[in-house]
Amino acid sequence: SDYTVTNSDLTGLNISGLNNDAGYITGYTETDPVVGAINGLVKADGVGNISQAVPGTDYQTPLTAGTDYLTPSGDGSSLTGLTKSQLGLGNVPNTDCTNADNISDGLTNAIITLAQETNFETAYTHSQASGNPHNVTKSDIGLGNITNDAQLKRSANDYSGVLEKSSPAGADLILIEDSADSYNKKKVQLSNLPGGGGGGTDSFANSFLHIQDQKSAGTNGQNLTSGDWRTRDINTVLTNQISGASLSGNAVTLPAGTYYCEAKAASRLGVRNKVRIRKTSGTAEDLLIGLNTYSYTNASYYSICTTDPSVYGVFTLSESSTIEIQQRVQSNDMGGVGCNFGVVEVYSDLRIWKVG
Q1: Tens-digit pLDDT profile for residues 58-68
Q2: Strand 321-329 and strand 251-254: pairing?
Q3: For the whole model, what pTM was predicted?
Q4: What is the pLDDT of residues 217-250, one digit of tens each?
Q5: Residue 93: half-sphere exposure toward Cβ, Cα within 13 Å
């Protein structure tokens, strides 16, 4: 039912705390027969309904200083409550970088840690190091097949700074590209070059082998028996400029190559006799056959000899081989008579030049 409120009904009521805003009554507790007790701010909808006001919807709540708004400092130079996080700098330490002690002092707010500083110092020291501090090998950089040898220069006229040998020997080596083997590089002895040195040089220079049969003064030459070829004594090497050549047991070992040879062997009364150069290793064969010689005796002279048997010419060996001077006589004889002049007796003489 409707109620009528008169002034007498309000006698003694304290309304000093009432809010004058339209639609709101504040500062008291209203007990409504319908909605019950309401504390705080209430609102009326204009048609007689009263309910509690909702903060932030029906009215603005008070702001908190430093949270909802910033207050200036006393001198106005800063805003109280403003933080680095609000500016997006929450992870930046509040460190004075002008102070060297703050660069690395082991503190939480240091720019770098002591361990980092040590690492930086190690890295700098390493950057100044010379030599090979990491022990890097040639294989590590893809050069495992390169030898630690002086390399030939390829620039023009670079031989001008290389020491020259004025008298090359047959055993000296030169570098070639083998046309018969896809031009792979190989070494060659100078004495094995065509012409014994090539390039217009003397084919007989620095490629000479000279061997003799020497016996003491007054000693006759070896005995020669008829019926077959007999190996002549050779026992003394006078000159050997051919690399790989040697003398052993009256036989000469020669490396593969081409040779010019001269040989003589003394005789006394062998009547018909002759000498040859015989290859005795591998497949035996005659390399050179010498001149015919003849010696005889008569009533007027003890002996007459046309000449000492000799042989000369060129032969080629396809592999390392041994050769001998061999002589055949018609009658048993001695291979020369001693002169006894106070010097050695010489009964065989072998001279060989490597020419190719």
Answers
A1: 777 776 766 66
A2: antiparallel
A3: 0.46
A4: 999 989 989 899 999 999 999 999 999 999 999 9
A5: 12
Q: Are 10 and 4 a contacting pair, CB within 8 Å?
A: no
Q: How many residues are there in the chain?
A: 356
> What kind and span of H or E run contains 43?
strand 42-44
- Rounded to whole angstroms, how far apart are CA atoms 241 and 172? 11
Distance CA 331, CA 270 (A): 5
Q: What are phi and psi of 287, to 5 degrees?
A: -95, -40
- Rounded distance between C-alpha atoms, residue 356 and residue 351, angstroms: 16
- CA 148 from chain centre, in angstroms, equals 8
CA distances from residue 128 to 137, 140, 198 in whole angstroms, order as listed:
20, 22, 56
Average pLDDT over residues 281-296: 87
d(CA 225, CA 300): 26
